[in-house]
Design goal:
Elements lengths: L17 H30 L5 H25 L7 H18 L1 H25 L5 H23 L8 H21 L1
Helix pairs in contact: 1-2, 1-3, 1-6, 2-5, 3-4, 4-5, 4-6
Length: 186
């Protein structure tokens, strides 16, 4: 009877190799920050003169900073962006504008739902990254804290009082998780 080669500790068959894992992290985070930028652009297009205009612009500016960091990571690490970026361009704006058209609370509910998923997503990435990726870890930690602030802003501005909040929130969270899965791979 032959013995199979020992498996690296913590790595299962089908798991990406370390370089592939880093490429996936950069790809999906770039795609996510691009999508977030487009969500806020859609919300600002609808609510850009309302009482939340300054708050939306502040959050959009932070998302742009995150996006620019991951654009540099793609170039430095020679990682291609997701092939579905044109879809994220349209879908992100539509989600932002669509929830804003449903009302301020629905727009805030969108922010809460997306940011709750991103908080967990970033936490998972931080657990995977080793000390050799300290710059990436530090940046993700900073971005994660800002995403949590966005979630808290949404909660403070009535997200949970949006019409059909449980349904709207669940649908957006599910969509966000699906987009993450696809963006890592495509």
């Amino acid at each position: 009877m032959t013995q199979s080669a020992p498996r690296k500790r913590g790595r299962l068959p089908g798991d990406p190799l370390p370089d592939d894992r880093l490429a996936r992290i950069c790809r999906v985070d770039h795609a996510g920050e691009y999508g977030a930028k487009r969500i806020y652009e859609g919300q600002i297009a609808v609510m850009g003169r309302g009482r939340h205009a300054q708050t939306l612009r502040h959050m959009a500016d932070q998302e742009l900073e995150h996006l620019q960091y991951f654009e540099k990571q793609l170039v430095e690490r020679q990682v291609r962006p997701t092939l579905l970026q044109p879809l994220w361009h349209v879908a992100g704006f539509a989600l932002g504008a669509g929830t804003a058209l449903m009302g301020e609370r629905a727009a805030m509910a969108c922010t809460v739902a997306v940011e709750e998923v991103i908080d967990g997503h970033y936490a998972g990435q931080l657990a995977q990254l080793g000390p050799d990726e300290q710059d990436l870890k530090d940046s993700i930690t900073k971005f994660q804290a800002e995403e949590v602030q966005h979630r808290d802003i949404g909660l403070a501005n009535g997200a949970e009082q949006a019409v059909a909040y449980p349904l709207l929130s669940a649908a957006i969270r599910a969509g966000t998780k699906a987009v993450i899965w696809v963006a890592e791979r495509v």
